[in-house]
Amino acid sequence: MQALAICGSPRRGGNTELLLKEVLTELNVAGWETELVKVGGTAIRGCIACEKCFENKDNECSVKKDKFNDIFSKMLKADAVILGSPTYFAAVSADLKAFIERAGYVAYANDHAFSGKIGAAVVAVR
Ligand SMILES: Cc1cc2nc3c(=O)[nH]c(=O)nc-3n(C[C@H](O)[C@H](O)[C@H](O)COP(=O)(O)O)c2cc1C
Question: How confident is the model at residue 106 (pLDDT cuts 50, 70, 90)?
Fold first, then answer.
């Protein structure tokens, strides 16, 4: 079984990363393969509503200039996806929100690609 943790904090070694690593350590002990990727502090912007994902249905976002598709393909392979975010003004970080917009829409366009996966979240506060 594979678990992918997605960190929405721009801080390296920050609280969100620490929390996600705690979760992944427990999963490792239970025999899972794990990986942590960062979307916080990256150039991944939000969905541009081009709807190309609904035309192409190729499990990819048409915006190819960033790491979105690499991370999305890891999500498709994972059995479990854990989203982590710092609390920014009582919400997820803008970086994680941008990623969620695109991942959610591409998955929706591709026969609900996250269907059956395990989902979890960690949140860091002040
Ligand atoms: C722009 C910004 C907005 C924040 N808004 C909140 C907030 O609404 N509530 C809260 O509890 N903490 C807030 N915080 C604090 C962070 O959520 C908190 O320090 C968190 O542990 C940081 O996680 P990180 O180390 O992974 O970045 C805010 C921090 C920043 C930079």
Answer: very high
- Which class for 106: exposed (0-12), middle (13-18), buried (19 or more C-beta within 10 A)? buried
- Complete domains list, the chain, with CATH: 2-10+17-124 (3.40.50.360)
Q: What is the pTM of this model?
A: 0.98
Q: What contacts 89, CB < 8 A, 6 or more positions away? A: none
Mutate to test the pocket of ligand 1, among 17, 22, 126 (most ligand atoms within 8 A of CB): 126
Strand order from edge to edge, sheet including 33-38: 33-38, 2-7, 80-86, 118-124
In this prediction, residue 30 carries a pLDDT of 98
